[in-house]
Design a protein that fits this description.
Elements (H helix, E strand, L loop, with lengths): L7 E2 L15 E8 L2 E7 L5 E8 L6 E8 L24 E10 L4 E9 L8 E7 L7 E6 L9 E5 L5 E7 L4 E7 L6 E8 L5 E9 L2 E8 L8 E6 L10 E3 L8 E7 L6 E7 L9 E6 L1 E2 L5 E2 L5 E2 L3
The chain binds beta-D-galactopyranose (GAL).
Amino acid sequence: MESTRSYLINGDIWRDTGGNIIHAHGGHILFWNGEYYWYGENRTENRYVSVYASKDLMNWEFRRDVLTTASKCMEHRVKTNLSLITEKGKKINIERPKVVYNKKTGKFVMWMHVENGVDYSLAACGIAISDTPDGEFTYLGAFNPFGYMSRDCTLFVDDDDTAYFISASRDNADLHMYRLTDDYLNVDELVKKLWQGEYREAPAVVKREGIYYMFSSYCTGWAPNQCKYATADKIDGFWSTLTKIGDETTYRTQPAFFLTVVNTGNIYYFSDRWNGKDYDDSRYVVLPLRFGDCGKPILDYQETVTIS
Ligand code: GAL
């Protein structure tokens, strides 16, 4: 039964409308046709990525495990590794899935971080597509963009529908920004190497009043650290140096993504409060992002949140 939840408790166990724990870690929300779709990592059993849907952003209905070990695979023009299980029949590792809609092709396109299930040496990005936001996604495989390492990642679609994939490269030392092809199914050009040697991870981008903001964490595995942000007037233009935001552990969180609510324009910082010892017990913290003078972002902690 649909509950009439009016607030969520940050760091608590969040349940879907069926009463089950929401597994959508390192995720992303897509608004499409009047509904919000929350995609994220689900590492239980044979699952990789699950999607939940909501109209009110507070009550989330489980829709489907959109990517599992049994998902269909399809050869794509990029030379990719198409396997969703290892040679030994074990799971691979899929992190930080992000889904966007491509208006030209009418496809829902997922980009993600793919590892071999044993360690982080593959450092690849992966792609999957679907005809509907909550359909079964077809896996198009994993590859190293222009041969580069690619780990923590995000996707950002600009107002002109140009999409950018941003991921940690050179053993996480640099953040690379790639402009995607029109169909969002390949990298077209490496447009930026950001904050070289600063080891930024967990990138998340939001645009407000013509300014791009990118939040990122430092590289300390599951342990939280100080989030920093930078701004730019053009996404592939000059990005400022990094400025601290939040407290020294960013309230024990790591960025997942930003949500801009369609009608209100309110912006929320969605983050993970990881449990490195028991990954499946990782929690969510969602905080409103406020803006001060000259568009300076402010991230304060609050125990509960009403997403509106
Ligand atoms: C974090 C990263 C997570 C996951 C984790 C593994 O730094 O943001 O997505 O890869 O490391 O230790």
